[in-house]
Amino acid sequence: MAGTAGRLIPIGVWAATRVFLLLLVFKVLSISPLDVTTDVSSIYHGWYQVLTTGSFPSSDVTWQYPPAAALAILSPALLPFLSYTTAFFWLCFAADAVTFALLLRAGRREGGAGTQGAWVWIGGVALLGPTAYARYDLMVTGVAVACMLSLARARRPQVAGFLAGLGAMLKVWPLLLLLGTPHGRVTRRVWGAAIASIASIALGFWLFMPGAFAFLGFQSSRGTEVESLGSLVFHIARHHGWQGQVLLNYGSVEFLGPYVDLVSSIALGLTGAAFGWLLLWRIMARTFTVATPLDAAFTAVLLFVITSRVISPQYTIWLVGMAAACMTLRASVMAVPAVLVLVATGITMYEFPVHFADVVNSTNLGITLLVVRNGLLVAAALIACRRLWVAYARPVPAEEAAEAEESGTAEPESERLLTW
Description:
Layout: H1 2-25, H2 38-51, H3 69-74, H4 84-107, H5 116-128, H6 137-153, H7 157-171, H8 185-208, E1 224-225, H9 231-237, E2 245-249, E3 252-256, H10 260-284, H11 292-306, H12 315-326, H13 335-354, H14 356-360, H15 364-393, H16 398-407
Antiparallel strand pairs: 1-3, 2-3
Helix pairs in contact: 1-4, 1-5, 4-5, 4-6, 5-12, 5-13, 6-7, 6-11, 6-12, 7-8, 11-12, 11-15, 12-13, 13-15
């Protein structure tokens, strides 16, 4: 009886919060004068009209996504009896429901943490507000969560590899999910499936839809987006005479002007340094549990987000999904970063759309919101890095391991990746 109640409560809260999100995107309720749904009704719909002709919007510099993103943009065609925008929102709702169900189920397995992962998903998506259903990132995150849960419990590693490859062809970052797979046969099988998935999807689009890879040339002239970590330099500099501009550029609101290229280059350098650290961790990793791939993936995505030239609000959906997947396992060491991500997501909704005008105009409130939100994400990333290293890469002395084995405190067999 208690178990049934334990499942019904999160289901009820999920349903209530999602009704609220639907009321927001359908404009029955409002939390801001800024309409976050125009990306769907205008930009996505415009891309949809081009894609239905059998080619990509290769002349539109705002199309900056891998070719499988076309599947998400075209997905409202599955509901032809609805308008494009209405169908898109309902499909996001469906992706949300499936992801929630996967997390709820994963928490009930052996070694699971009950409903913790499901609660992280409930809270995180709700805290982002209408943006969660007004971008296709929720669909991508659903694929990524399915991949992570497959990595933790997979009897068929090829499934996890296929999902990672599909996710990468939707929006690149899900390829980071494979960082923490165990050395040897497991990694060969998972990565082999991911490469095969990417190659087959890429080949199919290249052969049958012109312009599939035009997006690769649309990134070089980007500035620094106003919500990124690097943007704080210019938000403060505007109060001290900096003569740059804030413009809609390449699909986002960015700083353009003196020293922007320098800050953008530093951001790219930090991304490279972060990937270097992750590679070092991968080489040094010695302990692999069911939680290792999930914790490594969460850390990698955190580092990718904080060092990016762009931290759009929807990026926090990626982090919420990764945190939720980690929290389905008792063995995960990412509880504190997961909490910090949830708080940062709530502040993100307050920053966009509620006070986005303050951010664009670099008011004291706008700067404060960015400092707090980005500071929480940086703290989450640093804590995640430390915990990832200590839990999985720090060598355990032979004597300590022997003592743990004798005392019965060694890691339970059920929490090791023996199912692979």
